[in-house]
Amino acid sequence: KFSESAMAERYYLTTAISYPNGRPHIGHAYEFIATDALARFKRLDGYDVFFLTGTDEHGIKMLQTARKAGIEPRDFAEQNSAEFEKMTKALGGSNDDFIRTSEERHYAASQAIWKLMADAGDIYKDSYSGWYSVRDEAYYGEDEITLKEDGQRYGPQGSPVEWVEEESYFFKLSKFQEPLLELYENNPDFIGPAERRNEVMSFVRSGLRDLSVSRTTFDWGIPVPGDEKHVMYVWVDALTNYLTATGFPGEGDRSAFWPADLHVIGKDIVRFHTVYWPAFLMSAGLPLPKRVFGHGFLFNRGEKMSKSVGNVIDPFALIETYGLDRLRYFLLREVPFGQDGNYSHDAIVNRTNSELANDIGNLAQRSLSMIGKHCDAKVPTPGALTEADEAILAQSHQLLATAREAIDRQEIHHVLGGIVTLVSATNRYFAGEEPWALRKTDPERMATVLYVTAEVVRRAAILLQPFVPDSAGKLLDVLGVDPDRRSFSELAPERTLQPGSPLPTPQGVFPRFVDKLAEEDGAK
Ligand code: ME8
User: Fold this and answer.
1) Considering only Cβ atoms within 10 Å of each terminal Cβ, which end of the chain, N or C, has fewer?
2) Vertex 135: Cα angle to 300 and 125 (nearest 5)
3) Given this model, what pLDDT does residue 299 score?
4) What's the pTM value of the predicted model, to 2 decimals?
5) 461-482 residue pLDDT tens
6) Does this complex have an ipTM over 0.85?
7) Which atom of ligand 1 has the smallest separation from the CA of 266?
8) Where, by residue number, is the motif 'KMSKS' region (predicted)?
9) How far apart are CA 321 and CA 524, in angstroms?
10) DSSP letter for each residue of 59-71
11) What is the Cα–Cα distance from 325 to 470, expressed in whole angstroms?
12) With a 6 A CB cut-off, is 57 part of the ligand 1 pocket?
């Protein structure tokens, strides 16, 4: 007999690894929360999931920031990396590993992939002269540089560039122009969303120059095998983290997770993940990841959040102010994943009060408190189902299939949108059936309406788990759902609440956010 995990299909997904050159900010939290939700969804859907995140600790940007702080880069990276790891915990992260590129296992993996590329004849020594952006840790072509009125030159993402001239190893990126274009043509899902794919294809079509992949003017990096005067270009080592975590170059328990199913990254680093990374892997003779998704950027609308809090961009402060599940829900529901978005105090409060507290919370509270009072605190026994009952149950049955499709395109907002639509329809159903009036006239019909409502709430709660894990868990608790009956297999039509099973005392799961900050500010 196979164990469940031996039978399960594997799913490997990653976030970008963050530069720990400062404290984590809301952009880092956003990417992590979204990837965590995807990981949780896949686990609940029966996959054997490996979810990786971590920190990217080499490069000139890290070195310069450490020097400014008067600290050794290794110690500086260590201090800040700890803050990132703390953030993953504060966000309720379900990551299976946290990789740091300063770790020994990562040196081994980076040197191993370098050797494979060198053995393939794709690395040669020459000298580099051209533009480099420390902020982006990126080389740019002359055609991508703009000279501004201040006399300074800037790269395509608006960061200043400097002239670099030194001996360097090169990777034969130009050789991979055609193979890359074929990859994009043959695998239309390799890059998402579609506008990112178009940008990348036109960049590659415009021609690829060989890439400088080592530096000699500093030593904070991974030594080039056989020529220790050089350290690897930070992106060669950074991208390799995804392999390192699977045990590469060894054949450990995790090696079967490669190739990754999904790299979740921000739109500013799509070029590295969809041009350089697949070219490195092709050269090394290694399988390519299946998909790279570039999400949008998150901005604070710039409005005043509160006198006492200021413009909250610190993820720890946001969790403190709103609570984790409100933050997770807002970010995943408000901004279509893939597009840029804004957040503000008002937007967070309005969105979560109207959908979590009013729509979902009230539906659960009203139906469950009636069951508590009038059905002996047991799941009621339904009678014959009417068309209205069948319709709302059918709508709840369809949700998993559409959610799965949306998740495979990383359209997280559509999953939450679907749940909200179902809950609104159920609120209308509940109001229309008037179970409170049926109590005297037709108690059996009342029991049916309460049963149907509770069953739909159960289905919604199971599907909400990846997004608001704590609150969805509490909701399933008040529905009396056993902890091992909460996976998506429990959404099969024949799996329903068991009439007669006892229910705990109902309690509110999604309280309204009471705007103490606004009250305080208003009073001043
Ligand atoms: O780019 N909104 O690290 P990083 C949304 N070390 N996402 C944002 C954001 C914002 N305001 N700001 C940043 C790096 N991000 C490299 C990655 S991967 C092998 C190496 C996203 O700390 C950004 O797009 O600058 C990236 O995906 C992630 O946060 C880490 O950014």
Assistant:
1) N
2) 150
3) 84
4) 0.96
5) 999 999 999 999 999 999 999 9
6) yes
7) 24
8) 304-308
9) 20
10) SHHHHHHHHHTTS
11) 7
12) no
